[in-house]
Structure formats: C-alpha cells, structure tokens
Amino acid sequence: xxxxxxxxxxxxxxxxxxxxxxxxxxxxxxxxxxxxxxxxxxxxxxxxxxxxxxxxxxxxxxxxxxxxxxxxxxxxxxxxxxxxxxxxxxxxxxxxxxxxxxxxxxxxxxxxxxxxxxxxxxxxxxxxxxxxxxxxxxxxxxxxxxxxxxxxxxxxxxxxxxxxxxxxxx
Length: 170
Fold this sequence. Notes:
By secondary structure, the chain is mainly beta. It has strands at 2-8, 12-13, 18-27, 30-31, 39-43, 46-48, 52-56, 59-65, 72-82, 85-95, 97-102, 114-119, 122-128, 134-139, 142-149, 154-162. Strands 1, 3, 4, 7 and 8 form a 5-stranded antiparallel β-sheet that branches. A hairpin with a 2-residue loop joins strand 3 and strand 4. It is elongated, with a radius of gyration of 21 Å.
C-alpha cells in the first residue's frame, strides 16, 4: 500500500558536500505528508543523523552533509516508516577524487589537450587544459580507457586504474 521514491541533486560527492533529496510517497494512491521522523538515510554503513527537512506544498526535501567515506561507489538507502509500513529506495552515489595536472612542451609551454575518461565505450568525464596546460576536476575512482587528444595526435590508454591522481600525465 506504500509507494516511495526520491531523486538526488547529485550522484558524485566529496566529504562535506550538501546532498539534497526530493521525496515523494503515496499510501494507496493518496499523497503522504512526509515528516522528518519518518525517514532513515544511510550511505554505505554510515547512518545520517543530522538532516535538514523542509516542505513546500507537496514537495518534500531532505538535506544533509556527505559523511567522511573513502573514494568509491556506495549505496544510498532511504527508508520511509509510515503507519508501520516500510518502504526503501536505493541509488548509487560515488565519492570522487581530485584529478589535476599540467601538460606542457619541452619549452614549458601549455599544450591544448582534451582528456576523456571512458567506461564501456561511454564518456564518463572530460578535462580540458587551459592556456598554461593545467587541468583540474573530480573523478570517480575505477578503471577507465583514456583518450588524450593533442593538437596533432591522440593517445589511447586502455584499462587504466585511477585510484589516486597526482599529475600522472606529463
């Protein structure tokens, strides 16, 4: 008799990032006015206790800070307890690592470069260098195929393990 769902404002986070959930629940087709004490939120094994909850009409939102977890993918589980009925929904959320570096010529001039991180043939992340050759961003740890496009050539690297990132492309 209980239908429950939520959406996330982001699926990639760092420790301390604010995560906002938009919640929706129905009992036998009638919308439920969700309250904060109906909810239990967990990321991996970390229980979320400090939740800011607010509603506007029939829109319900829960905000909390991402707990201190190691980079990688985790299951975000939200459980609704209403009139002794339980409903849970799960989504994957990923903790990212910083990826930055600099690509320069032998004369220390920045090289215009595009770095693509691919998984199963699909682009997951793209970094572009600035005029000094610097690039920076965040990426989910894992194995990727890299496509590095320089002005006059391209370099392909396959099954690259990205678990830490400290200027690995020189």
